[in-house]
Amino acid sequence: MRRLFLPFLTIFLLRILLPEISFAQDNKKDSLTLVAKKRANKVALMSAIIPGAGQVANKKYWKVPVIYGGAAVIAYFIKINNDEYNKYKEARIYKSDNDSTTVDPYPQFSDLEVKTREDYYRRNRDLSYIFAGVLYVLNIVDAYVDSQLMDFDVSDNLSLRINPAINSTIYNEPVPSLNLVFSFK
Question: Which residues are within 8 A (CB) of 114 and not within 5 positions of it... i.e. 6 or more apart?
Fold first, then answer.
């Protein structure tokens, strides 16, 4: 009985001294949070299925060309690097076979130089695939975060004012400076 008395007394005193604290659930806030979370999940799923669809749902239309422009650039680099990789891979195979009838497409390069170029273009192609994956994930994350922040309060309740001033140092010397003044409305 004594163990239960102290917590109940604490809650009772807090309730009397701080009446603005509510121990009940705020159903309005909870329902808004739930709606925002469902909307964000839906937008992220839309963006995962069709890249850019989440941005359209969030009415951030300017981001769609950025996403598809980035995808086009990455696709271009994948194509170029893959073509070069296949060209040098084939050249390496031609150099290493012992058939006298095959024509070496790069007689000016040694076996090591052809292998080095092949590895270079393969690495660049693989990096381009990684960049494509990163762009895809960033598209989904951007849509999700944008949807979550849609209800974020961006009112003028906080402002910053920068004022020039002359302050003194420890040695009472005047020093020009800037004062940063935060105002809460």
Answer: 88, 91, 92, 95, 106
